[in-house]
Amino acid sequence: QQQVKQSPQSLIVQKGGISIINCAYENTAFDYFPWYQQFPGKGPALLIAIRPDVSEKKEGRFTISFNKSAKQFSLHIMDSQPGDSATYFCAASDNYGQNFVFGPGTRLSVLP
Amino acid sequence: EAGVAQSPRYKIIEKRQSVAFWCNPISGHATLYWYQQILGQGPKLLIQFQNNGVVDDSQLPKDRFSAERLKGVDSTLKIQPAKLEDSAVYLCASSLFAGIEAFFGQGTRLTVV
Questions:
Q1: Closest CA to A66 of A30, A98, A96
Q2: Strand runs (DSSP E) across chain A, as ranges?
Q3: Chain A hits for B108, Cβ within 8 Å
């Protein structure tokens, strides 16, 4: 199963700061790149997703930047809030909708 | 819109026992996934169904795990016999079709003692 690498493993940010999480992949057949947010005791919930035909997608305080040539994508959380404290997973699936794989996760803590 | 339903929420069994998990996906969703999430790790895909057919089960330990999706709606995941390392949260997810947003249930937390 193709992997997705994710960093950092954990991140501490002050309220109002910018949180940045990075992911990298190898499988060039991947063409769907979602980010999921997970709170303790809950299932992952989709935050934002991107496809390779665009380099950036913004939804509110959340932005995905995508670099197809480097096979990297990142999540930026602007004006981070304590309520954003959760574990974030990047994921990817291929153009057949298969190999839906997740990164190892980043535990974000936003300090008040 | 009702979400993905899973039961039970928690299960504690002894090693070598068997256990089954149930998932009811969002109505109309053709694609169903089962993931295993070990504490502190990302979800690991066990099996993917498209309607009632298996699309990918390459990561499913077939000597002890089995899954079915009869009639292309509900699904069950079974472990027999369970091992200590099977302790994890088992997540079910569904999507309208493969390659788009998948919605997750709350998961079943399995503890094998």
A1: A30
A2: 4-7, 10-14, 19-25, 30-38, 45-50, 56-59, 62-67, 72-77, 86-94, 101-102, 106-111
A3: none
Cα angle at A75 between A73 and A79, to 5 degrees? 155
Q: CB contact, 8 Å: B25 with chain A?
A: no
Residues whose CB falls within 8 Å of the CB of residue B51, separated by 6 or more in sequence, listed in order: B30, B69, B72
CB A99 within 8 A of CB B55: no
| B residues 69..98 contacting A (CB < 8 A) | 91, 93, 97-98
pLDDT tens, residue by residue, A25-74: 999 999 999 999 999 999 999 999 999 999 999 999 999 999 999 999 99
